[in-house]
């Protein structure tokens, strides 16, 4: 452990200037914490020995290995043929009819519709730029070296910039009302904003649920249970279809905003339960020690309880984030053009209708990229947060 | 006490008549609302090719979309003053009831319940759909009446299946159903020659044909439709002026086809001596004033959207990938159901 001693002595990360080698060293730690470390080059050097030890060591394992290899042989070559070798990559739908494999031309022809929906065609560089900016900022926010006050400033500027790009109406950009937005920007914004808004709300709800004040506790329990008791589709449907019926005629709240509000409240209820799990996992002694020090409720919560509780619940929270990201595809029920809806619409064109599978594979790949990144990031974050604890 | 009551009664009568007066003095809430905000909020399908769907460039097109554009052209003289609200099937009626949209043009079948209990008013049908039969052109069939003894591919457990057996029974014919659960497999079975005819909604048949067949002329959709699906634009109840405008905006397109006016020839037709054409195009004033819009309202529709035939052929007919025959949607003079009342 001597190699990490400087890191071990460092104060808890409210902290300034982390050395550059930190991130790398955290990644190595779990291996050291778990049983005897495997020398890294071993599998590469002695593949046969490794295979003999792990795949063919008993008759049962040998049989399973052979069966798995057979299954792979059945599945992989035809799949590769369909996906890549026999696929048609460009040209018309006629060329696709000739080809035996997948028809990726449909993506070439329809990718603008899938990514940007009904956004005016000549202006589609704007949502593209907005998405790129957004994703870049999300990526940057994950890097520890950037966790500084100026990140908040950068986010404010980014959001303003995105608003300007998407809506326009200033600086020579034509105005594009948000009922014409669609595709990837809708999916990204709905998921990120609903998660970002739901997270603080969920902490308040979880704290409220544990509150000793009956009114607050009842409200929080009622809200959480009501939201968890109904499917997201019905929340969206209420927000989008029933809610306007209660408003006076002519008064409408923006459709996108309504869907966002519905998703935020729903996600917050689920997150709150995850956070509550963390709060309950903190030993009583921690609360009592904080009280003994004379800390106020908010000092105790912010300095002692939440930092420990949130660290414990990173996996369920990220689980909820990923789920929320995928749930954005349900907004099709309220007529919003998210990525999946735009993809579905692309398949209604009779010329390309036989190639719906390709379009869905492509949409699936897009969702996978985002969800997988989130999951990998959460694993890194977990190691970072738990580097002082061994459980 | 008595004087009190009578005073109240007078006040009530006065206020009622005041409401009635204001009702006649100005147009309804939707009409005024649309005029004030400067665009028509139109509820359309999320994506149904030929009726309303965004094209590769994200621009809305289709037969229903043309209905929205025609109303905007009549109201503002500009067919582009439309905002589209894509709606799911569950959403469409509440969206209209709540005032979120002004006009619903989303392949909605007109039924008694929707017209009454749901609080809608339906404009004239802009597309007569219904269940039909598709057969191979090689069979040389001209009518569904010739299908006696045929094998028919049909989805199970739908009204589609019931309609077929009712139709054959009513015409004293027999058929052998080939019932297949899944749409794709049903289509495959038909194109592989397992059955003589495939049955579904006619617009659906055309879409299947366009998607699956290299040369659409190899398969024929027979002219008989055996069920009724009159797809009609709808508005909220309670605003007759708006209802009138939507109704007559559609009739203007049909009337233009009857008179042979297209978006190309309408400029030349401004000097036509035909009194009907003069009234339609606003050369003889009156219609516009009656509807509460500019006198050139119909000219704007024909110039910017086209007549009904143009809209039909461009979106679902010979000029589109669907290649649907006019069938019931032809003019009444050509054996169809499209008929515009006199516009005077």
From TrEMBL, chain A:
Coiled coil: none annotated. It is found in: Cell inner membrane; Cell membrane. Its main location: membrane. Residues 184-378 form the ABC transmembrane type-1 domain. Keywords: Cell membrane, Membrane, Transmembrane, Transmembrane helix, Transport. The chain crosses the membrane at residues 55-76, 125-143, 150-176, 188-208, 229-247, 259-279, 330-347, 359-377. It is a multi-pass membrane protein. Belongs to the binding-protein-dependent transport system permease family. HisMQ subfamily. PANTHER family: INNER MEMBRANE AMINO-ACID ABC TRANSPORTER PERMEASE PROTEIN YHDY (PTHR30614:SF41), MEMBRANE COMPONENT OF AMINO ACID ABC TRANSPORTER (PTHR30614). This is ABC transporter permease subunit. It comes from Azospirillum melinis. The lineage of its organism: Bacteria, Pseudomonadati, Pseudomonadota, Alphaproteobacteria, Rhodospirillales.
Automatic annotation (TrEMBL), chain B:
Residues 39-264 form the Solute-binding protein family 3/N-terminal domain. Residues 1-27 form the signal peptide. Transmembrane segments: none annotated. One of its GO terms (biological process) is amino acid transport. It comes from the Bacteria. Keywords: Signal, Transport. InterPro entries: Bact_solute-bind_prot3, SBP_3_CS, Solute-binding_3/MltF_N. Belongs to the bacterial solute-binding protein 3 family. This is Amino acid ABC transporter substrate-binding protein. The lineage of its organism: Bacteria, Pseudomonadati, Pseudomonadota, Alphaproteobacteria, Rhodospirillales.
């Amino acid at each position: 452990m001597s190699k990490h001693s400087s890191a071990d002595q460092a104060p808890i990360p409210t902290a300034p200037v982390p050395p550059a080698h930190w991130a790398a060293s955290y990644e190595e730690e779990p291996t050291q914490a778990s049983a005897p470390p495997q020398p890294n080059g071993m599998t590469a050097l002695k593949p046969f020995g490794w295979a003999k030890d792990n795949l063919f060591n008993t008759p049962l394992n040998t049989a399973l290995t052979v069966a798995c290899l057979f299954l792979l042989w059945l599945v992989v070559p035809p799949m590769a043929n369909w996906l890549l070798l026999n696929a048609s990559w460009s040209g018309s739908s006629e060329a696709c009819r000739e080809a035996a494999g997948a028809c990726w031309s449909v993506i070439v022809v329809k990718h603008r519709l899938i990514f940007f929906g009904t956004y005016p065609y000549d202006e589609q560089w704007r949502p593209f730029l907005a998405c790129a900016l957004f994703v870049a900022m999300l990526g940057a926010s994950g890097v520890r070296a950037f966790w500084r006050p100026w990140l908040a400033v950068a986010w404010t500027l980014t959001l303003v910039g995105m608003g300007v790009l998407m809506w326009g109406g200033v600086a020579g950009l034509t105005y594009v009302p948000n009922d014409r937005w669609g595709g990837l920007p809708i999916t990204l914004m709905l998921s990120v904003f609903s998660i970002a808004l739901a997270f603080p709300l969920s902490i308040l709800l979880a704290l409220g649920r544990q509150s000793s004040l009956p009114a607050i506790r009842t409200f929080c329990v009622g809200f959480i249970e009501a939201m968890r008791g109904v499917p997201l589709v019905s929340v969206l449907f209420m927000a989008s279809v029933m809610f306007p019926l209660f408003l006076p005629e002519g008064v409408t709240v923006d459709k996108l905003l309504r869907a966002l509000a519905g998703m935020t409240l729903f996600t917050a209820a689920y997150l709150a339960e995850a956070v509550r799990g963390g709060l309950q996992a903190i030993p009583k002694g921690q609360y009592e020690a904080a009280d003994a020090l004379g800390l106020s409720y908010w000092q105790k919560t912010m300095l002692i309880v939440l930092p420990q509780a949130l660290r414990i619940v990173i996996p369920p929270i990220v689980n909820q984030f990923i789920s929320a990201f995928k749930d954005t595809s349900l907004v099709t029920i309220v007529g919003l053009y998210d990525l999946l809806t735009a993809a579905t619409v692309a398949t209604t064109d009779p010329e390309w209708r036989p190639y719906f599978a390709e379009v869905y594979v492509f949409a699936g790949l897009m969702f996978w990229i985002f969800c997988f990144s989130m999951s990998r990031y959460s694993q890194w974050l977990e190691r970072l947060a738990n580097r002082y604890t061994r459980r | 006490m008595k004087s009190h009551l009578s005073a109240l009664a007078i006040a009530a009568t006065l206020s009622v008549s005041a409401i009635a007066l204001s009702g006649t003095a100005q147009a309804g809430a939707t009409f005024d609302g649309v005029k004030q905000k400067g665009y028509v909020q139109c509820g359309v399908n999320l994506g149904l090719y030929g009726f309303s769907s965004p094209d590769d460039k994200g621009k809305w097109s289709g037969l229903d979309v043309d209905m929205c554009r025609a109303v905007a052209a009549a109201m503002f003289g500009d067919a582009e003053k439309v905002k589209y609200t894509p709606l799911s099937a569950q959403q469409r009626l509440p969206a209209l009831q709540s005032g979120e949209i002004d006009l619903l043009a989303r392949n909605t079948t007109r039924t008694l319940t929707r017209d009454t209990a749901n609080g809608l008013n339906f404009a004239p049908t802009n597309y007569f759909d219904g269940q039909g039969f598709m057969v191979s052109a090689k069979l040389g069939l001209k009518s569904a009446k010739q299908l006696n003894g045929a094998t028919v591919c049909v989805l199970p457990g739908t009204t589609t299946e019931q309609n077929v057996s009712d139709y054959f029974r009513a015409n004293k014919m027999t058929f052998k159903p080939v019932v297949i659960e899944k749409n794709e497999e049903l289509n495959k079975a038909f194109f592989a020659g397992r059955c003589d005819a495939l049955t579904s909604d006619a617009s659906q048949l055309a879409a299947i044909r366009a998607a699956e067949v290299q040369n659409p002329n190899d398969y024929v959709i027979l002219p008989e439709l055996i069920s009724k699906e009159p797809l009609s634009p709808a508005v909220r109840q309670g605003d007759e002026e708006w209802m009138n405008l939507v109704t007559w905006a559609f009739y203007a397109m049909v009337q233009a086809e009857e008179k042979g006016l297209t978006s190309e020839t309408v400029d030349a037709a401004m000097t036509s001596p035909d009194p009907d054409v003069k009234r339609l195009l606003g050369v003889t004033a009156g219609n516009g004033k009656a509807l509460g819009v500019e006198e050139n309202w119909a000219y704007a529709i024909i110039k910017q959207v086209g007549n009904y035939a143009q809209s039909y052929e461009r979106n679902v007919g010979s000029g589109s990938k669907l290649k649907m025959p006019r069938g019931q949607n032809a003019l009444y003079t050509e054996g169809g159901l499209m008929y515009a009342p006199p516009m005077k």
